[in-house]
Amino acid sequence: MSAADAPETPPAHPLRVPGFAALMGYRILTILSYQIVAVAVGWQVYQLTRDPLKLGLIGLAEVIPYFCVAPFAGYLVDHLPRRKLGIAACLGLAATALVLALVTSLDGAARNVWPVYAAIALTGGVRAFLGPVYNALFGRVLVRAQYTRGAGIASIVFQSGLVVGPAIGGVLVGLGDVRMAYGIAALCALGAAAFVGSVRVTEPAPTLQRGPVFASIAEGARFVFGHQILLAALALDMFAVLFGGAISLAPAFIADVLHEGPEALGILRAAPALGSVAVGLWLARHPLERHAGPVLLAAVAGFGLCMIGFALSQVLWLSALMLLLSGMFDGVSVVLRSTILQLATPDEMRGRVSSINGIFIGSSNELGAFWSGSMARLLGLVPSVVFGGLMTLGVVGATVIKAPKLRRLDLRELR
Length: 415
Description:
Elements: H1 20-49, H2 52-79, H3 82-105, H4 114-141, H5 147-175, H6 178-198, H7 213-225, H8 228-243, H9 250-258, H10 262-285, H11 292-312, H12 316-344, H13 350-379, H14 381-402, H15 404-407
Helix pairs in contact: 1-2, 1-3, 1-4, 1-5, 1-6, 2-4, 2-13, 3-4, 3-6, 4-13, 5-6, 5-10, 5-12, 8-11, 8-12, 8-13, 8-14, 10-12, 11-12, 11-14, 13-14
């Protein structure tokens, strides 16, 4: 029986639920590992190439294997023990960080970035499991009445990782070298494996024999594409991140516009997450349910305006402020999207739906990095980010017209 099926009165606060704190430990340490690697790889590649397109290729190298693995990862999470899959994924995340350290140490690595891209491709395949495992376990340790508040706490934890991870990565790169950063990232991944292994929930019995694999995957896709509110929320976030992925160009802005060092890169990468943490703290104590749809649309529009402001800034403090505000708007979007995802998805489909969510959202970060790098090569650094912000505003306008159920959404309707 899952927590969602338990007949007893739930605790007043999600953190009182056994296993939820351990799940949050798994979440933050996987984010720390990934973000430290992202900072180190971005700085390493740009210092070697001085080419923003090469920064975009980092995202492309990760998203292709992610796309290939994600549907099968969701299927496996729905049919096999989720904690064991989470442990395996964390061990894989640690292995990819160690591979990056090894690649960097090899002769010629300082002159050739292609082995770095190959190592990042391994990360893409591993990351396809992290989100589905987390979302599936989230639905087992909390009851439905706790989902909104739990999503707020999870957003704080997630965004705290996005604050601390880049800061650690920037400091490690500035004080030592990227190999030290990769080593710390591997240790974080190992810690995450220990946390997810300690989560105590009764999982569904393995049902790998139930139905063909591709039919099961298609079932999850049909559910998402047949649910207007869920599909619109995912698509809105995906295109906003795709067109507004200016943070992937932060190394170029630091070097060519702001003329700062690697420590400033950590500041810029941490600023959006700091804003999201502030919003998450508020939403954890004041769950947002009424007028959720209009608030979500307004938040994504604000995110697009902040990207335009970041592009036009020429001083570090203003650039960091724009990213901080963008994180606040994005934090609202993340909490609302996560809550919609949890409330709308049946427990037996959480892995597959979460994988589709990952394809929409997780892959959009990498595709957004490739889009931003390509547009920076085509239009120039600053014009490309302004254009992306304008495209984000256009996506909001299209969603208002095409998704009336999301426009009128009240979260209480999904309970």
